[in-house]
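>> Question from a student workshop board

For tomorrow's exercise we were told to take the sequence and the ligand below, predict the bound structure, and bring the output to class. My setup keeps failing. Could a helper post the expected result so I can at least see what it should look like? The ligand is magnesium ion.
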Amino acid sequence: MPTKSTNPPRRAEQSFKGTPLSPGLALGRICLFNEYRHSNLPEYRVSGTGIRREERRVRRAVVVAAERLDELRLQVAARIGPAEAEIFTAQKMILQDASLAADIVKRIREQRVNAETAITDSLQVFERRFQEMDDAYLKDRATDIGEVRRRLLDVLGNMRPGLQCQGGGQHCQRGYKRIVVAEELTPSLSIELDTEDVLAFVTVHGGANSHAAILARGLGVPAVSGIPGIREQVRCGDEIWINGDTGEVVLHPAPERLAAVVAARQAREAHAGEVSPPVPGFAVFANVSSAEEVRQAVAAGAEGIGLYRTEFELLQVARVLTEEEQVTRYQAVLAAAAGRPVTFRLFDLGSDKQFPALGIPAETNPALGWRGARLLLGRPELFGDQARAIVRAAAGQPVRVLYPMITDAAQFLELKRRFLNATGELDVRHISHGVMFEVPAACLEADSVLAVADFASIGTNDLTQYLFAVDRDNDLVAGDFSADQPALWRVLDLLVQAAAAAGKSLTLCGELGGNPLVVPRLIGLGLRTVSVAPRLITSVRAAARPVLTA
Ligand code: PEP
Ligand code: MG
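>> Workshop helper replied:
Here is what the output should look like for this input. Compare the format with yours to find the bug.
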């Protein structure tokens, strides 16, 4: 009699394409996160002394949640860095906002509902308002409000965030490595789930600018978001493969794919920690936005920092940093660079990097509006504080300052004049002033711009956007955002020639420089310096070496 096989049938492979949030590869078993633990909350009516009891419960929940946030802040500061730890300060500010407490208490008193109901209703209203905003940055802040709501409800119900698949097998238990699938990647999810055991995160929602994405990158845990319905399609224990570099996710990978995946991972691990030596005649610098990233860049062998996006220091804390606070951060960046050259790009705010703390009015076309150099001209106090902070942090060591979104020589000279005015009493002899070539008009006037600048850097991300009138952030037109267009290469050629004629150093710091397939062509043009994400340094050098040493 034939025996019946006890092996369950192999499930068909399913591929998804999401948004890469944090780089790296992972293959493992799924654990689902129990974000629905608040779906059955107690709901009851109150009156008389019951009203005061619910108010007391809210006040206590706020105090305990604030203490937990303080603990998390210290933990994150020690494990990742002070900038990332500020996320929990931002949540504490929301938690302790007087108008929020007043709204919750009003609901208890007027609607005679319990604390859980009042908190849920009140915070969901705020959360929805933020979710509906057009601005990607503010949309991401809705996550913080949701986090605060969950924290208060956890305290009231004596619950903790955790994994939900008790029946899903051993990989959900402490000590087993797993890939966490969740509706949304929140800061607490990133940090509280014993991240040593988390191989990767896959989520339905979550923006690349969200705090949680920043944390996942800081923790070095690969993450992909933007996969609708993934939670409903998987079970605890299912096998899944994720590529945090490309956003590719494969559920139930087929045996052939598994072999390829394992080989890719082994190849990557074999090269992990391996630092490729510099290529003679071709400098590879790094793009960073914090001192922690400078440390990663140095570990990856960067010859210097070609682009420090200083505006990210403000975006992360959602407020303007004082001159003193900036000095501290800039000193940390210079210390981490340990004598390598550092290029500070002045705040490039506006457009996709909306920053409500500056009170910029809503614009119908922000990419063409008050951003970059124009914003620096319009906010002299912001500009002056930053100029002084950079010069003070440099304290006599050479530093390069890069001016974003410059349109012509006159605009650059006016900003430089203001920089020197603001730093009047300080020693600025070691500061050099450079121009970003990312607005087509400035590129066409490269000769006159380079005549007054000390150095220049090409921002191909914005240059492509403005040259071809193609939004760099819009999925619908992403197909037109291509490097393979003669007009772009004509402009690049023009810039390389102009810089050579003027005898000024030229770097390319847009994403294009990190594409190994394009590197030989850039070298062919005569370009000799690129600045790329730290994790791309090795592959860029590998592409450049044979061209220059042949
Ligand atoms: C660019 O535009 O290419 C650039 C490097 O700057 P950012 O991406 O910060 O706009
Ligand atoms: Mg730019």
